[in-house]
Amino acid sequence: MAKKNQTLGEFIIENQAEFQYSSGELSRLINSIRLAAKVVNHEVNKAGLVDIIGAFGETNIQGEDQQKLDVYANEKFIQTLTNRNIVCGIASEENDDFIAINSLDEKNQNKYIVLIDPLDGSSNIDVNVSVGTIFSIYRRITPVGTPVTIDDFLQKGNEQVAAGYVVYGTSTMLVYSTGHGVNGFTLNPAIGTFYLSHPNMEFSETGNIYSINEGNYAHFPKGVKNYIKYCQQEEDDRPYTSRYIGSLVSDFHRNLIKGGIYIYPQTSKAPTGKLRLLYECNPMAYLAEQANGLASDGFQRIMDIKPTELHQRVPIFCGSRKMVEKAKEFMKNS
Ligand code: P6P
Question: Where does Mg(2+) 1 bind (predicted)?
Answer without folding.
Answer: 93, 117, 119
